[in-house]
Amino acid sequence: SATWFFAVKDAELVEAVKTAGGSVVPAVDTAWIAGDANKVKNLLAEGGVVTLNEAVTLTTAPDHADGNGKKDGIRIKDGQEVTLNLAGQTLTGDFETYDYRMFQVYNGTFNLTDGNIVAIAKPFSDGKMGADGMSLYGIVMVGGNGNGAPVANISDVTLSYTGVTTENADNGGSAIMVNDTKGVLNLKNSTIITANAAGVYCNQGKATLENVTFKSSGEFAHITTCVAVGYGGTMDIKSGTYTAQDAVIYVYPSGGTINISGGTFEGKIKIGTQGNAVADSIINITGGTFNGSAFNSLTETQWKEFLVNEQEGTIEVIGAGTNNVTIKVAK
Hints:
It is a single chain. It contains four helices and 26 strands. The protein has helices spanning 11-19, 30-33, 37-45, 300-304, and strands at 3-7, 23-27, 48-51, 56-58, 74-76, 81-85, 90-93, 103-105, 109-120, 140-143, 151-162, 174-179, 184-195, 198-203, 206-217, 225-230, 233-237, 240-251, 256-260, 264-273, 281-285, 289-290, 293-294, 307-311, 316-318, 325-329.
């Protein structure tokens, strides 16, 4: 079938192309968007490639809600594969949701590339926070309803997200979250900048990180870290630079595994367990530099200088001084 390029506001042309069996590849007219996240949702629902031509700030939330009637993010249509090419531009999210990320991928494939995204978190207009929600809880959610096999391929982007710090907020969210047993995140050649929040949290599912720069600041609640896993999630870290004011790596007490074959890490490592853990908490290390020292040069005593025990269990350092080091807390 043919490939057509068009301005999104030409709705009649869109329908004519689709009726004729052509594929739709939108080049976004940013004036047409007018700050409305719902229009971006409708664009992405068509599948194919959507390309921005200038910076956009979204201030009006999508017009749909989750099953509880709470405001949702920009949901990628189930079964679709869509590419959002930022083309070097900056997309800013500044709209209200209830504990949702800017983009929600439940059962499709979302490819995000080449540009910048900024998500602005702030108290709800009624002042509520925590369990009642906040404006945005991060940038991309992979999964969330347990009924699909969502995939996010993210490359050559800079994602910036700052969690809200108030006494009523339970945590600051995360820039990217994998939240499905079949969820998959592939993140490479990118920069993740967070404050009072996690960079990538793999809560079930699997994430693979390659050549990513993380910058984490703040010491707010338990979520502040570059990368984290929990509830049986698995993360493979191949390379990159990970710098944190607080925790650079966090294996939640619910259990999970991080495999590290390379990278430079500066900050604490938090790991622990709890009574309802679904798996052991494990970090397998076969490469990388930690707080200025090659992983295979560190003694057990040196490792424990920057290991922090979260909640329960005893931290084991297995194979210190070798090319296969495991840090473990059994459930």
